[in-house]
Design a protein that fits this description.
Largest sheet: 3 strands, antiparallel
Number of strands: 3
Distance between the termini: 147 Å
Strand order of the largest sheet: 1-2-3
Number of helices: 2
Number of domains: 2
Order of helices and strands: HEEEH
Shape: rod-shaped
Strand content: 5-15%
Radius of gyration: 49 Å
Helix content: 55-70%
Length: 142
């Protein structure tokens, strides 16, 4: 402790500052841990700590906070893009499978159509044959 009941950080200071007496700081003692200055309130209350470059430190924290937020958003976008890519691949595979099934159905439909045409032709021939037989029966029966 020094006079005025404040801590003396003088012995931990850098070699350049260790040559300066405590009075050269005009009642301030420099704390070199994070660039803070320990000052006594002139009204005699407890010491307060102020940051020498508080504006720069605040700006740095804001930048870091924004960077973390942007990084998190980018990771979400990247994750969503991966999900969209997977869904797109699945959709593409589904469309290709559906296209193959439609092709198979068209082939089966063409076969069924040919079978129906064949049955209709056979039915027409039977009807013509029955018509001839009926006509003969009709003409003979008179």
């Amino acid at each position: 402790m020094s006079r005025n009941n404040t801590l003396n950080f003088q012995r931990y200071a850098s070699p350049q500052l260790s040559r300066l007496p405590v009075d050269d700081f005009a009642g301030e003692e420099r704390c070199f841990e994070q660039g803070r200055t320990s000052k006594r309130d002139p009204r005699g209350s407890a010491p307060r700590t102020t940051t020498v470059n508080s504006k720069q430190a605040r700006e740095q924290r804001e930048i870091e906070k924004n960077l973390v937020r942007v990084r998190d958003e980018w990771m979400k976008v990247k994750e969503e893009m991966g999900y969209v890519k997977q869904r797109g691949e699945l959709l593409s595979e589904t469309l290709m499978a559906t296209d193959r099934m439609v092709g198979v159905m068209l082939v089966e439909l063409e076969r069924a159509e040919e079978n129906v045409r064949g049955l209709m032709a056979q039915n027409d021939r039977l009807l013509e044959g029955n018509a001839v037989v009926n006509a003969l029966d009709y003409s003979v029966g008179k």
